[in-house]
Amino acid sequence: MYNRIYSAAILGIEAVPVTVEADIGPGLPGFTMVGFITSKVREAEERVKTALKNTDIPLPAKRITINLSPADIRKDGSRYDLAIACVILAATGVIPSETLPDVMVLGELGLNGEIRPVPGVLPSVILARKMGLRTCIVPKSNRREGSVVTGIRAVGVSTVGELIRFFTEGVIPEEGTEEPEDAENEAADFRDIRGQETVKRAALIAVAGFHNLLMVGPPGAGKTMIARRIPSILPPPSPEECLAITRIYSIAGLLPQGVSLIRKRPFRAPHHTVSPQALAGGGLVPTPGEITLAHRGVLFLDEIAEFSRRSLEILRQPLEDREIVIARTQATYTFPADFLLVAAMNPCPCGYYPDTSRCRCSPQMIGQYLGRLSRPLLDRIDLCTEAAAVSYDDLRKGEEGEDSASIRRKAGAALERQKMRFEGNGLLFNARIPASEVSRYCETTPEAERFLRCVFSKMSLTARGYHRILKVARTVADLDGAERIALAHAEEAVFYRSLDSKYRI
Ligand SMILES: [Zn+2]
User: Fold this and answer.
1) From ligand 1's centre to the CA of 354, what distance in Å?
2) Superfamily designation of domain 190-402
3) Can you give the pLDDT at residue 441?
4) Which of 155, 254, 265, 363 is least surrounded by CB atoms within 10 angstroms?
5) Could you list which residues have their CB under 5 Å from ion ligand 1?
6) Spacing, Cα 190 to ligand 1 middle (Å)
7) How remote is the CA of residue 351 from the centroid of ligand 1, in Å?
8) Which whole-number Å values give the CA distances from 290 to 77, 210, 277, 293, 304, in the listed order?
9) Environment class of 365 (CB within 10 Å of its CB; exposed 0-12, middle 13-18, buried 19+)
10) What is the per-residue pLDDT across 442-466, written as a single tens digit (0 to 9) for each?
């Protein structure tokens, strides 16, 4: 007796079809599983056997062979449990086998016959629809995630009993009253930050042109507070971006319970002790790392000088290519990693330089500290700004700052100008203008031109550094609603490089 059903494997951020086949034949009773599977998949045998037994369905005393194909894709995890149970149930006549070819099944089995959530449901349901299937059976707690996809039915089941009733009687388990999507906690708002106008301005420019930002300042200057508020001034994600972000969190198994679609931009702030693997993505069959979880959002590296060199080196390629490629012996995986990098650091090991009344670090120590950021990494950061020391009173007193909604509108208007300017050539942000197009898009007034030429020789800039200033100036001009980069715009852009000379970074 032979039967087959579809399931799906996750490779990178894509789901690919996997066919689960069962053959039950005469011979010594036994259970064999083949098809390039990891030990985790092999454990399905015990889970399936026990779950069926506890649902009062004895396995036939025959020779059972399970094959997962195609054979060249490594299959990992517990996501095939339910598909394996299905083909066995069909092979033993418990469920009708003719319904199987139209269905995709995903889910982990508990020993008591309960069906547990698995990662990657969203891309799998999208795949099932692409394959022209009519139904995708998923664990009940993943149903909302699957229901985002239109044009296919995502059925949520919570027990083997429910699965059988669906196949035999067409009973769709009650959806239950799902809690309303959690009303997002009021996000942190820029209005809470008094003072620090320069840093706030830099944050606006960063968002308005998608420029990576580095804040240097003593502890307590509000760097972290500002970083955490940056997502609140980013334009809300488009529907396609929501789907792309949700897909990543689905695969990482990090979709919050009851959330079907992530509608806000991610903010990831890995600690400086994070391993290079956790940052990049790792595992035998790699899963998304922090830089991918920050896709279309903010990656915040607090105390960036404390990160290991290996971790920081990992950022280089994604900052250039907007994706990360992870090679394994059997395959190469590509994960999207298009994030806004926001970094913060102290100016010296003690944190108080250049306040010489408090800083006791030697020039050598300061140099070494800043030297931890490699030149190639710094080359990818467009804006450097200093967060001055502020007293507690400064932060408390005075008027409330400008609120996030108002700052977001300014950034939005600048982004809109960029969209119009780049219409039809695939660019979205000033920060992404390629070297070959800088002169075309970053037109300057004669005064600005003279000023920049002077700066170029004085600061002994590289071509790359010069382009970076021009792109930031372009964003400042966009915020100003100006067609051409004027002197004031160029001056402000150069101001965000002044740290280079001050700290010799
Ligand atoms: Zn110091």
Assistant:
1) 8
2) P-loop containing nucleotide triphosphate hydrolases (3.40.50.300)
3) 95
4) 363
5) 348, 350, 353, 359, 361
6) 29
7) 5
8) 21, 19, 9, 5, 15
9) middle
10) 999 999 999 999 998 888 788 888 9
